[in-house]
Write a structure and sequence with these properties.
Largest sheet: 7 strands, parallel
Oligomer: single chain
Number of helices: 25
Strand content: 5-15%
Number of strands: 17
Structural class: alpha/beta
CATH superfamily of the largest domain: P-loop containing nucleotide triphosphate hydrolases
Radius of gyration: 26 Å
CATH class of the largest domain: Alpha Beta
Length: 608
Amino acid sequence: MGVEKLEQAREALRRYYGYDSFRSGQERLVGAILDGRDVLGVMPTGAGKSICYQLPAVLLPGVSLVVSPLISLMKDQVDALNETGIPATYINSSLSAQETTERLRGMVQGRYKLVYIAPERLESERFVSMLRQVTVPLVAVDEAHCVSQWGHDFRPSYMGIVRLLAHIEPRPVMAAFTATATDVVKEDIASRLRLADPVRVTTGYARDNLSLSVVRNADKRDYLSRFIRERPGQAGIVYAATRREVESVHEFLTRLGIAAGKYHAGLSEEEREAAQDAFLRDDLQVIVATNAFGMGIDKSNVRFVVHNNMPKNLEAYYQEAGRAGRDGEPGECVLLFSPADTATQKFFIERSEADEERKKNDYRLLNDMVEYANTSDCLQRNIVRYFGEEDAEPCGRCGNCTDERELVDVTREAKIVFSCVARMRQRFGVTLTAKVLRGANDAKIRQFGFDSLTVYGMMKDKSEKELTQLIHALIADGYLRLTDSQYPVVQLAERVRGVMDGEEKVFRRVEPAVTAPRGRSRGRYGAGGGDGGDYDTVLFDRLRQLRKEMADREGVPPFVIFHDATLREMSQLKPTTEQAMRGVRGIGDAKYAKYGAEFLELIRRSTV
């Protein structure tokens, strides 16, 4: 990107978004698009992907298209763009025929710089014919992993995006963005969207503001109750695997007096929309949902995400957990793991209409998820290594990195397990292996003659649950592995050799009594919220209240006006002049003109 274009981009960033500099990866992606290059951006949630296509759209002639999977995402982003002074709209099934016609007419007349559309809109001949009448310099594909059959959320409708290119002359720049993608998925995205020698930017998968933790064998209801009560006023999402579990958890939380909503595909569209809007507007503290909720949800001030059940794979988990802390402020991500969750996900895989190759892949991904739930390694490092970053360092923040429980030498027990797996000819699963070790009186054990093995009953002092936990921990730490099938078989990994030869010892931490982590402090002036350094929390709460009143007045979610991070900086710097207020990150020209005076007046009154 030339110097002149770079200056234009930086000026637009300041004017519209209120930031003086780009984040990691943004400048390169923006520059490539402005230079006419296709791009593939893989950036974690909260890294600022949307700016990478919104900013070029402002500077390029004509109207840019954004293909987005969810109606809620379109509305949130369009509201935010219009608040920053960038004319934008969306066209989807939520509009009446008259509204659709009016917006199509506005697109042809050049009233918008960005138009958000659902992929299904690309099948509309009317829409495609209208495109021939406008200049389309850029087509941005958000949540691009949806185009890949190997991604965790494949959507056949995304395959229509390439067909669109035949109707736009000259061919627009194609820009694909996603938060998570393995190397296989990245190649699939580039191939299926026919990206032409794209500029590829992967900014890294680590989220420095998130603390990850896995809680095993907890009383989930008791844990949730204490966890949420210790975080009053903090917005959070609780994910559950099934509609029935969503209903059950929601009923439990509402009985406790917690302002909670629910969201799943079994509710009417009106019910889902009402719950989502209430959550976005901060009228609800918590929303309990299946994975039908949240992809692309722009709510920036979600402080925690709790998975009441294990998701189907690590990509889905990290996408969902990553909805905490989108504003860069601290977020907590907790997985409440139970072995029963594995059976639920296997049921979903078997019930799916996928072919056998896809099912085998799904089982492999599920095994990776189970390993994450059992690993003693840094949780952040486990995830980023999954996505191909082998040189990652421990994060120092996750539940494993901060675990101060006593390390116990379990080398002897591990050797017995390895010996048992070998004597069972590496052909059976975790449960039967645990039963042999415990010396269970089981018909299948007698059938295969395993009751005559020297290891039979050698660990009878432990329960079957303890033994399955030990085996899964050995799998997670790379001593054993599971086959990719509905009924996975335990096999020995190369790492076993060092243990059996006496060159390596195996350690495990003592299982603790499960307690919910305490809520984070909120600076020196108060208690209870996110950790943002020294700032006046009394003023911060007043600013939040003013923002809520404004949001209700304008009919938009509060974060569309200002993010929590912007309010926190206000309450730290306490600006009392226009110049000082404009120096706060996240305050562009349009937002200052619309809201700046009221916030300044509140700060002046509060600091007298």
